[in-house]
Fold:
Amino acid sequence: MKKEELPKTIPIFPLSNFIIFPKTTVPLNIFEPRYIEMVNDSMKTNKFIGMIQPKSTSYEKSSIPSLHKIGCLGKIVSFKESDDGRYLIDLKGIIRFKILNEKETFKPYRNCEVNFEDYLHDLNEKKENIKFSDLELIFKDLKQLFEKRGFIINWKALEKQSLDETINALAMASPFSLEEKQMLLETINLNLRKNKIAEILSTYTFDEYDNTTLQ
Structure:
């Protein structure tokens, strides 16, 4: 995809406890009428949807939640309609964006003017120069954390993907907190994201072993 093809205004899907990264594909079950309309409109145009986290889940349903500034543009790559009227879509992460401002609209869903300038490297097909051997310790610690939390990951399948796809998929699926995942999303490049994952994992490791200090 080229920079010139990026939209200036996108429909926004604020979803708590959910982050999509570039070069990852996730399934979504759409059932709210306003988001069914959003998917309908998106399918008629460029198939783009902006995924972003609301800043808090503790708001009244009648109010409009404030949003994080950084999200990820997704493209609908698969679409099915269920017998009961739900939409089952696969959304592929394309590029991160920064919200500039929210647009007034007659639609039931939100639209925002966005900027992609800080994240144009997300569009690059070139693989970043990080080797799997550099990540063995991180993967080992991640495996322990995933297993401890009851997560099941097909590690063999992951290792067949490109490195950026693997790191982003693990960051997205990890049992990290929402704030930690948002921090990973906002980390500018893959190398820094790898380091942030290591930093976060070190705090989890410390928590596990802080009661076994030698006297």
Remarks:
- The chain has six helices and six strands.
- Residues 132-209 form one domain.
